[in-house]
Specification:
The complex is a heterodimer. By secondary structure, chain A is of the alpha/beta class. Chain A is built from ten helices and twelve strands. In chain A, a hairpin with a 2-residue loop joins β9 and β10. The relative contact order of chain B is 0.15. The chains are: A alpha/beta, B mainly alpha.
Chain lengths: ~325, ~300
């Protein structure tokens, strides 16, 4: 393990699902890396493989029907793919934590939130019930829940959505994981609460040095929080780079589409952004992807090559990778 | 660690100023008490239990002792419930028998719940071939005629309290297994189960600490009704003469006086009525438990 190894690196991971309609390649050679103290954003429409990427990192790909066919996921140089279940179980929650989309249903309704955070502590550390509960209350304070001692005795249904998501974050962070995967942590919340949760994540990340993988379709959140971003489409990473380069000069037509989809608030937007653009069509079924670029049927700038050959993810500038024939200047060939 | 200003700031979280941290248990009791019939059932059951457990202190007659002429009518010669075909006091038999009937009912229900929950939980949690195998196994027990099957067990292993209880438990767990499995199938897809799994929970932890507590309400209702049906079952076995002759139970009183039903109907009717009241009380309580444990009703 060299010093330059990223904290978490996902390399060429391939996940296949065996369905009645045939084999679906849910993740197709996905590569990502995140350094400690860094926020990696993964964006894309529903069904493009964002959540599956998270599950494969957690080692929770539903099997059957799913299977990690090839590739490697390394945490601090330690290979997670193919690791025996017991060791992987210990890494989950301890080294890699995860928060889910639905704070409303992600907490166990029959236990108090304090008990649930304390349980998460006790699953990983030999803490006495008393010490675990103290830690739970400290965590509730860390996620900025006022009157933490009182709230620790509350049941999930007695808390608002934003509070529950804070509790989820407290559970995920109780054991100070080195990587936190946040799978659309704010989709179910009000806009004001979303901003609070993002602020909180950013604070915790800078305090604890946790690496965060933020899965979202909110381009605004990515622009504000993330350091690097990966755009996914139909199970592949189609564009990857630092937030500045990807958002200011998106190379892939899909990324460009995603950015123009975001409504603007200024009263007099520049002419090219005045109309809210949409990307026509939907994400294709993963069972019948053709030979060519999966985005080609919805793309505005296709060339002949798009229909017959899949573009590889290649650097167009330094550390800015795109998988698009047009962006790579494939028209000349 | 965290900016103290952030903590001092009020959260615009739609948080009520004062939250009341009520234990859901208290809500359940309130919901149960709202069901008048269930309260009546509870009082009735407590009265029956007081009769069987405290009664013998005030009326210490041995239920097996021949105390008076056979077939003394109820109320005659100071015998409130009369005497049976051997001249034994039916009142003391009712007290002693009630304890045994209720104990058998409870123990058999516990056995069937333990078997049923285990089978149902594993079937529902693991799915696949485990579920297939366990549910076929359950169906095997389900299609056997329960009375006949329990008669076979008692006939094979002898009529003692233990074998009768086991026989009843073994033939009546299938309903619990089915309820448990369906609850597990529903709950295992819940986000909080996925969340617990991502927090490195073992299967056993997920089954018993995460899913089972959430699956309990319908199982509790089912278990409660099971007590009533086990009491009936014991009576049926006793009626057929397949119960421990050395232990007095309500069913035993009915069974032993069965040949004289036309001459001394009261000797059969009194324990029969006691069984009826007990099972009724338990059913009413079950109805109240259903209300109390059903979160949809609790919101009203």
């Amino acid at each position: 393990m060299s010093m330059t190894d990223p904290l978490l690196s996902v390399e060429d991971i391939v996940v296949d699902f065996q369905t009645r309609a045939g084999k679906a390649r849910v993740l197709d050679h996905v590569s990502l890396e995140v350094e400690s103290g860094e926020i990696l954003g993964i964006v894309g429409e529903s069904g493009c493989g964002k959540s599956m990427t998270a599950l494969s990192i957690m080692g929770l790909v539903p099997d059957p029907p799913g299977r990690v066919t090839s590739g490697s996921i390394r945490l601090d140089g330690v290979e997670l793919v193919g690791m025996d279940h017991e060791r992987l179980r210990r890494i989950r929650g301890k080294d890699i934590g995860m928060i889910f989309q639905e704070p409303m249903s992600s907490l166990n309704p029959v236990f108090t939130v304090g008990e649930q955070i304390a349980e998460s502590v006790r699953l990983h550390e030999n803490a006495s019930p008393r010490a675990a509960m103290d830690r739970a209350i400290a965590m509730l304070r860390a996620v900025e829940i006022p009157e933490a001692e009182l709230r620790a005795r509350a049941y999930p249904h007695q808390l608002s959505g934003g509070m529950r998501q804070r509790v989820m974050i407290a559970i995920a962070l109780a054991c100070r994981p080195r990587v936190l995967i946040a799978d659309e942590p704010t989709t179910a919340l009000d806009t004001t609460v979303q901003a609070q949760i993002f602020d909180l994540l950013q604070d915790l990340q800078s305090d604890m040095g946790t690496a965060i993988i933020l899965i979202t379709h909110d381009m605004g959140a990515i622009a504000e929080l993330a350091d690097t971003v990966a755009v996914m489409y139909a199970g592949r990473v189609v564009e990857k780079g630092t937030v500045e380069t990807v958002l200011s000069s998106p190379q892939h037509p899909y990324t460009q589409g995603l950015i123009t989809c975001v409504p603007h608030l200024e009263p007099d937007p520049p002419a090219e952004r005045s109309e809210l653009m949409e990307i026509p069509g939907v994400v294709p079924a993963l069972t019948d992807l053709g030979r060519g670029c999966a985005f080609a049927p919805r793309c505005r700038a296709t060339i002949d090559r798009c229909g017959v050959e899949k573009p590889a993810l290649l650097p167009s500038e330094d550390a800015h990778l795109t998988a698009c024939w047009v962006a790579q200047g494939g028209a000349q060939r | 660690m965290i900016d103290p200003k952030a903590i001092a700031q009020p959260l615009v979280d739609g948080m009520p100023e004062e939250i009341k941290v009520t234990h859901p248990f208290r809500e359940m009791i309130a919901m149960f008490l709202r069901n008048r019939l269930a309260v009546f059932g509870l009082i009735l059951l407590l009265a029956i239990m007081a009769f069987t457990f405290i009664g013998p202190y005030f009326y210490p007659t041995d239920p097996f002792e021949m105390v008076w002429a056979p077939f003394t009518r109820p109320g005659q010669d100071d015998y409130i419930f009369g005497t049976d075909y051997l001249g034994r006091d039916i009142l003391s038999a009712m007290m002693a028998g009630g304890r045994v009937s209720m104990a058998i009912g409870l123990a058999a229900a516990v056995i069937s719940v333990v078997i049923g929950v285990t089978v149902g939980a594993f079937a529902g949690y693991y799915g696949g071939w485990v579920e297939e195998a366990l549910m076929r196994f359950t169906e095997f027990f389900q299609v056997l005629p329960t009375l006949l099957f329990s008669m076979v067990i008692v006939a094979l292993f002898g009529a003692s309290l233990l074998t009768v209880t086991l026989a009843i438990g073994v033939v009546s767990w299938t309903a619990v297994a089915r309820v448990t499995r369906s609850e597990f199938l529903r709950i295992r897809e819940m986000e909080y189960v996925a969340a617990a799994r991502s927090g490195s929970a073992r299967d056993a932890y997920l089954i018993f600490r995460v899913i089972l507590p959430n699956a309990l309400p319908p199982i509790i209702v089912q278990a409660n009704l099971m007590v009533g049906s086990a009491i009936l079952f014991e009576a049926a076995l006793s009626f057929l003469g397949l119960s421990d002759p050395n232990v007095m139970s309500w069913g035993q009183v009915i069974g032993s006086n069965r040949p004289y039903i036309l001459d001394a109907g009261f000797a059969v009717a009194i324990p029969g009525f006691a069984i009826f009241l007990t099972v009724l009380a338990i059913s009413l309580i079950g109805d109240g438990l259903n209300d109390a444990l059903n979160p949809k009703l609790r919101q009203r």
